[in-house]
Amino acid sequence: MIVEIVSVGTEILLGNIVNTNAAYLSEKCAELGLSCYYQTVVGDNEDRMSEVMENALSRSDVVICSGGLGPTEDDKTKEVACKAMGEQLVEDGITRGRIEEYMENYVKSNPGYIVTDNNWKQAMVPEHGLVLNNDNGTAPGLIIDKDQKIMILLPGPPIEMKPMFENQVFPYLHSKQPEIIYSTTLKICGSGESYVESAIRDLIDSQTNPTIATYAKTGEVHLRLTAKAETEEEAKELIKPMRQELEKRFGTYIYTEDEDETLEMAVVKLLKEKSMTLTTVESCTGGAISARIVNVSGASDVLMQGFVTYSNEAKHKLVGVSNETLMEFGAVSEETAREMAEGAVRTTGSDVALSVTGIAGPGGGTKEKPVGLVYIGCSCKGETKVKELHLTGNRTKIREQSVAQALTLLRECVMKI
Is the pLDDT at 313 greater than 90, yes or no? Predict the structure, then answer.
């Protein structure tokens, strides 16, 4: 089936908000095996919305609209969609009851709030439509399935739209598909996109079913394997040989096959498995490494301490980098990164320490030490490894790359224990 995504909202056109809904819906539709050829953003104008929806229905089997289901006058998505699909709006008692309950609870938490009559507009639904309950707001989602066309209306706020799609729309569309689409993702760290793509060029050139696609992330490359079959078990069997071949080629560079697992989650899990504690010592990243680590539930089991040693004085006072090293080699040097990591182990008694020092820019660079020069060090069980990086991009990108590379180095060193 062909799907089309329509995002409604003048605020999107003006750039006031980023259209994350379209990216999310595109990814989910791809998982379902739906072909998406068009995406459209349209403002809160009834005539233009009508034109967009009619065009979408003329060339696509499924049209998914997000936004414009609220109680205000400019929320016209439902009315325009019903007109395009030849449906009348009627009040749904169950939806009105849910809205009443939601408003009662809201007033309890916000004394003095007055419930206006326009809220009941959201209880109006297509006469022959399917109502999707909204557990995170007042506007229900709607599905109109008529004359071999499907129109799906979803609320705009992602906190409402995403769970509604995953719990109600995804299963609905899945039931309409004659084939099962199954995907799995291998996440690789420590190898650049160009290297990964060249290493699997033969697989890409010969692919049919399953298929393989590469996605570049900061400091990582993700490989998505997708297969079509009559059952999920058959699709998994189709993917199995390709996954095994990729495991042969990339080995321990693959840190997970779990779509939801991040690099920091994999690192924390590895440290737990080996009963090891960690200390971080950061200069140009300013605590970003430890922030990534503490994003993980259970990080307190492994993270002993985090130092931000931005100045030379802090490097000397907190982790014992010698003044001689700082004077002779400078704060941004292999020698300083090494002493930062080793000093952190010595100071805290942790099993492993991770250090980073560099020039994130845009100023501060020289011919000898340009912007983007970064040293990361890892001291683990008496052995210290330091890597020299030459990164490009703005200050934010250089710092983000430094964090990703540091976590990768940490994982490499711990895996050897």
Answer: yes
